[in-house]
Amino acid sequence: MMTVAQDGHLRFVARVYRLRMLGLALGALAVASVLYQLHASLWLWATLILSGAVWPHLAYALSRRAAEPIRTEYVNLVIDAAMGGAWVALMQFNLLPSALLVAMMAMDRMSAGGWRLMSKSLALQIAVCLATWWINGFRLQPASTMLNVVACLPMLLVYPVWMSLVNYSLAQRVRQQNRQLDQLSRTDALTGLCNRNHWLEAAGGEWLRYQRNQRPAALILLDIDGFKQINDRYGHAAGDQLLSDLARLLQRGLRDVDTPGRLGGDEFGIVLPETNLERASAVAERIRLLAENSRPNRHGQHIPWTISLGVAAVGEDIQDVGAWMRQADVALYRAKSQGRNRVSVASSGRGGGTTTQPTTV
Ligand SMILES: Nc1nc2c(ncn2[C@@H]2O[C@H](COP(=O)(O)OP(=O)(O)OP(=O)(O)O)[C@@H](O)[C@H]2O)c(=O)[nH]1
């Protein structure tokens, strides 16, 4: 099976293939206008046809079959540049087609491999150009005619636009992948809720809002009762399913502005903006009842489950998010120690508070 990296490499090779086909076809037109004026020999025409029509397919086949397609494609790009250097000398330095060829190839190499590939290609291009010039008897006819100008126009007009389109779609894809990565780095993989770090950021934001504007906010920490036994009795997969069910239940039972998150294992948290302790306790009790009354059947097995919840509101005595979390945690611990399946509310930073009994069991 192909890995994501291999898939990316082959996409790159296919992209360069399409660009090479277009670039060499348009470039061949410009070169042909000069060969025509120079009454070039048949073998030069044959070489032009071969390099324009056969080389792109050969280069593509070589890269696709290579163990390292990207490395082979870079070699092909350097070969392209060397061929370009030879054509500049064979055109006897006809100014417009030569400058166009060199500029388009430099642009190509720069966008495919940066300065390194560009400078390597340019060095080889100059060397091959000088060697071909020497073999060709140092012939020089730099003046471009109207025919050369017209033959260069398609490349001048079409190639840069095509190149920009390719680069634009690449940039779009990178932006989209960055967004996905950002989303993944904030999300808990099993439940789809935000993960601990992201959740703590949300709690931190509410704590700051309280410091600045005294806006009320509350935290609820909750934990599945006896989750270890559920895992042991029904299996880890059933435990995972239960964690996902709880996440759905939280998403359904809360407002859009509330932030539920998985803090780790079977512990979850909820940040409730603009919510005082009384309202947060009512929310916690509603969630507890929802959990208690959702009794899923898994493969014919009935899994009863409940949760315990600790609630804490932000206040003057809370120095930072850590202290706020500790208050909610103390309340959760109290709900557990007083029999589970209940809501416990922190009354102050020193851990006092009240616990509501379950209405149904
Ligand atoms: N299925 C599943 N289990 C997990 C996952 N992460 C942690 N656990 C298990 O969750 C259990 C958590 O148990 P504890 O929180 O220690 O205790 P508990 O059994 O829930 O008991 P109380 O919290 O005291 O009611 C452990 O057995 C972990 O192995 C997970 O992603 N999936």
From TrEMBL:
Annotated TM spans: 21-38, 44-62, 74-95, 115-135, 147-170
Keywords: Membrane, Transmembrane, Transmembrane helix
Residue stretches making up the GGDEF domain: 215-348
EC number: 2.7.7.65
Protein name: diguanylate cyclase
Top-level taxon in the UniProt lineage: Bacteria
UniProt-listed SUPFAM superfamilies: Nucleotide cyclase (SSF55073)
Record field: catalytic activity: 2 GTP = 3',3'-c-di-GMP + 2 diphosphate
InterPro entries: Diguanylate_Cyclase, GGDEF_dom, MASE2, Nucleotide_cyclase, Rev_trsase/Diguanyl_cyclase
Gene3D superfamilies (UniProt xref): 3.30.70.270
SMART domains: GGDEF
Region span, Disordered: 341-361
Organism, scientific name: Dyella koreensis
